[in-house]
C-alpha cells in the first residue's frame, strides 16, 4: 500500500511536526492511517538526514513522489516557496494522471490572499485544501504541544482530525470552511504577540527614563497579566459592555493618558502607542461622551474600520 | 489623645480605602496606631454620610481639623484638587503653629512633576511626603485588595507600613526614596492597561473584518495570556536576551508584520500599532541585522529614547 501521509518542508518547525506525525502513524493511534511518513525537502540532503535519524520516516527526492499520499502537509518559509511547491505538486499530479482524493494542508504563515489563490488552484486540480496555521515555537513542535487552527472543506477537516493529536497538544481551534480565515487568524495571533513585545518595550523604556528598575516593571506585568484586567476588558469589549460599574471612565483614562504623554515628553521617551490610545480615547469621547468605560476605545477602532458601534450602553 | 490618621477625598476609591483603614485601626492590628479615622471631603455632606454609615470614622468639616493627625492620606480626583487641598493643609498647619511630625500620603494618580512640587512644599513645612499610588478598582478598594506603590523618605515609609495591610491586600511594591518614581510607575501601569485594551481592540477589529468571530480571538487571548509568551519576552528584553534559540527572528517577524499590514490594507482595517511595531522591527534590522529575536524591537524603542543598547548577543 502506498504511503498515506507526506510532509514537505523540514525547517525548525517542520522537523518537529514531522517527527511527531511519524511517531503517531507508527503508534497506530490514527484510525485509518499508517506509516511511514514520506518527507520531501527542497534540499534533498536535509530530508535524507532527517529520515536517517527519525524512526518511521522515508525521504523522497522529488515532489512527484508525494503525489500518491492521501494527505500532504506543507510547512514552508514564505509565500513564494509555498506557491512554488504547491505548483510542482499539482503539476506532478496532473502528469501522473492521478485522480485519487487528496488533501493538501498548508501549515505555513501565509497571506490570506495567497491561501485563497492556492485553495482555488488545488480545487481546480481535484485536491481539497486546508489551511492549518500552527502556533508554537520549534521546541513546542518537537514535543507535540502546538495549537493548530484548521479551516477548509468539512470532509477534509474530518479526514485530517485523527492526525492532529500528533502535534496539536495545546488545542485545535476549528475555524470552519474558509481556509483564508485560518491564515488571517494566524496573523492576528502574531500581531497580538508582537504587540505584547512592543507594549512591554515601551513600558520598560518609560521606566528606565524615570528611575524605575526593569524588575519593578516586570513585577507589575507578572501581577497584572494573570489578573482579570486584560481578558476582562477584552471580553467586555467583545460584548459591547462599556459600563463604568466595572471599568474606568474615559474622562479619567484620558486624564491619565494625557499624564503619560506629558511624562513621555518630559523624559524624552517617545511612546507612539500612548499617542494612539490617547487619540482613540478622545475620538470615543467626541462621539460617545466621556463617561463610558475606557474599553470603549474599541468604538473608535471599530468606527475607523467601518464597523458599527457595538455599545450596549447607548 | 488626638486622632492619629486622617483621610481626605471620599470618591469611589477613597471610600473603600478609608473604610478598610478605619476597620484596621479599630482592630488594633496596626501597632502604634488607633482610631477613629478622621475623614474630610470638600463636599461636607459626603464625609458626614460616610461617617454615619461606617464604624470607626469621624467626619470633620475643615482641612484644619486634620492637622493634628500623624498621617494624612489624600486621594483626590486630579492634580488641581490635590494641589488645592495640600495647600489648605499646609496653611492650616502654619496657622496653628503646629510643629509635630506629620506624613502626607498622596494616593491619587498625579503627574510626577506635581508630586515633586508637592513633596518640596511639604518638606518646606516640615511634613514628610510619600506618594503611594494604588492599583485596583473601587470594588478592590472596598475589599482591601489593592496594590500600593509607596515612595518617599525611608522613615516615613516605615511609619506608614503598619497601615498598608488594611487595603493593599494584593501587594506593596516599595520604590524607594523619590516620591515621583511612584507617580511615574502608576502612569506606566495605566499605560500598560490601556495598551491591553488597544491591542485587544485592534485584534478584535481585524478579526471582525476577516470573518473571524470575537469568540475565536478571545480563545486565543485566554490561551496565550497565561502562557510564557508575554512575560517571557518581557523578561528576555529586560535582560537583553535576543537569541533566536528561544525566540522568533526579526526577518520572520517583519515578514509576518508585513503580511498583517497587507491584510489590514486589504480589509480596510487601520492598525496603527501594527505600523509602529513594523517600523520598530525594520529599525532594529537596519541597525542590528535581521537574525536577532523579534523581542529586539526593544532596541529600537531604547535607541529612540536615547538609552544604550542592552543586547547581550552583540
TrEMBL record, chains A, B:
Span of domain 6-phosphogluconate dehydrogenase NADP-binding: 4-170
Sorted alphabetically, the keyword list is: NAD, Oxidoreductase
Instruction: Name the active site residues.
Output: 186
Give an example GO molecular function.
NAD binding
Pfam families, alphabetically?
A: NAD_binding_11, NAD_binding_2
Q: 3-hydroxyisobutyrate dehydrogenase-like NAD-binding domain: from which residue to which, for each copy?
A: 184-297
Its family remark reads: Belongs to the HIBADH-related family. NP60 subfamily.
**Full protein name:** 6-phosphogluconate dehydrogenase NADP-binding domain-containing protein
Tell me the classification of the organism that encodes this protein: Eukaryota, Viridiplantae, Chlorophyta, core chlorophytes, Trebouxiophyceae
Amino acid at each position: 500500500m502506498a504511503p498515506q501521509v507526506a510532509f514537505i518542508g523540514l525547517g525548525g518547525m517542520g522537523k518537529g511536526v514531522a517527527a511527531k506525525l511519524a511517531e503517531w502513524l507508527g503508534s497506530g493511534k490514527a484510525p485509518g492511517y499508517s506509516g511511514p511518513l514520506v518527507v520531501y525537502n527542497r534540499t534533498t540532503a536535509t530530508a535524507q538526514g532527517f529520515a536517517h535519524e527519525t524512526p518511521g520516516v522515508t525521504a523522497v527526492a522529488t515532489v512527484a513522489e508525494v503525489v500518491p499520499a492521501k494527505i500532504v502537509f506543507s510547512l514552508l518559509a514564505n509565500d513564494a516557496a509555498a506557491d512554488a511547491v504547491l505548483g510542482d505538486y499539482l503539476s506532478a499530479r496532473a502528469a501522473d494522471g492521478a485522480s485519487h482524493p487528496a488533501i493538501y494542508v498548508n501549515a505555513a504563515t501565509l497571506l490570506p490572499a495567497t491561501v485563497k489563490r492556492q485553495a482555488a488552484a488545488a480545487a481546480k486540480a481535484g485536491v481539497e485544501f486546508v489551511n492549518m496555521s500552527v502556533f508554537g515555537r520549534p521546541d513546542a513542535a518537537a514535543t507535540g504541544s502546538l495549537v493548530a487552527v484548521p479551516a477548509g472543506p468539512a470532509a477534509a477537516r474530518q479526514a485530517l482530525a485523527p492526525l492532529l493529536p500528533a502535534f496539536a497538544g495545546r488545542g485545535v481551534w476549528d475555524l470552519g470552511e474558509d481556509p483564508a480565515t485560518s491564515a488571517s487568524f494566524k496573523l492576528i495571533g502574531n500581531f497580538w504577540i508582537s504587540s505584547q513585545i512592543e507594549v512591554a518595550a515601551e513600558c520598560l523604556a518609560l521606566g528606565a527614563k524615570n528611575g524605575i528598575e526593569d524588575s519593578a516593571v516586570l513585577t507589575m506585568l507578572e501581577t497584572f497579566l494573570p489578573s482579570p484586567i486584560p481578558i476582562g476588558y477584552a471580553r467586555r469589549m467583545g460584548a459591547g459592555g462599556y459600563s463604568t460599574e466595572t471599568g474606568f471612565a474615559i474622562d479619567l483614562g484620558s486624564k491619565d493618558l494625557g499624564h503619560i504623554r506629558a511624562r513621555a515628553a518630559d523624559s524624552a521617551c517617545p511612546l507612539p502607542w500612548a499617542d494612539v490610545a490617547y487619540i482613540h480615547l478622545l475620538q470615543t469621547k467626541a462621539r460617545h461622551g466621556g463617561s463610558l468605560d475606557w474599553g470603549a476605545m474599541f468604538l473608535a477602532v471599530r468606527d475607523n474600520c467601518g464597523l458599527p458601534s457595538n455599545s450596549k450602553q447607548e
